[in-house]
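User: Hey, my collaborator sent me this sequence without any context and asked if I could get a structure. I don't really work with proteins. Can you help?
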Amino acid sequence: MHKWLEELIASKNKKALPILSFPCIQLMGITVNELISSSDNQAKGMKMIAEKTVSAASVSLMDLSLEAECFGSKIRISDDEVPTITGSIVSDLESANTLKVPPIGAGRTLVYLEAVGKAVQMISDRPVFGGTIGPFSLTGRIVGVSECMLFCYDESEMMHTVLSKASEFLIAYIREYKKTGANGVIMAEPLTGLISPDLAREFSEPYVRKINEAVQDENFIVIYHNCGGSTIQMIDSILNTGADAYHFGNTIDMAEMMKHIPENTIAMGNIEPAGQFRNGSPESVKEVTIDLLKKCSKYSNFVISSGCDIPPLSSWDNIDAFFAAIHEFYCCT
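Assistant: No problem. I've predicted the 3D structure and written it out in structure-token form, which is a compact way to encode the shape of the chain:
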């Protein structure tokens, strides 16, 4: 996989790597609920997207409710939206201390692991990545997203207790992805983008680094994703996590971000998922894609992508326009 990263950097006509999975429901004629509950549907969806698009890799679902559900959090499921967490299950140090680290297999974890294992057998022309949440973002869903920022100041011991348990679970979970034959995972740590760089250094960086050190090797990589608006300000901390590659959201200036990324490290981003893929038009998607490539393609380590997970009901005309614009840019410039 390190060679694959090197080849991406060296390539003149680069392939995109959007976080594209949930829109397969339209190709399959199923609901989000039917997708998240079936490993066969997930693997089939990944295969259909691989056949339909010229992407650099195949990615599984970015479902940020999955791991928190394993710990006991309640989720809200709909037929056309990504699942979300409701409420919290830890509010003080006592409840943090009694929080149990769930076994792999709790909740829907086996469904997602089996899906990636099946996809690996079906997709042989590009790497296959699993998806997982990051430790601070998982902790935020366990203690409450709106409360966790205050807890960093007022209940720091509680936060570190939950973060340690979240990291323990994520290491075990990602190691199971390795056993499926996956080539890596995309780790989504978006909640870190809502806190200050100082808090990120304390409450996210060391835990992400611990996970990366436990799971990465020459055959398995972690792509770190953060779609927060303060990622440029905290880029030193993000790079200190030691991920093999990075992925950023559309709330930042990607051209400015590229100035801070080492030339031998890939950074991906950042066409707006909701504003363009979901609610734009083929013409607007083409325009913003070409514009971003003009600004960032001078960096050999830039790989164009969506800014985050592409929503389930995003127009396939818009998705196709994204890939067509990339082909046109690299072939005609």
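In plain terms: DSSP finds 17 helices and nine strands in the chain. You can pass these tokens on to your collaborator as they are.
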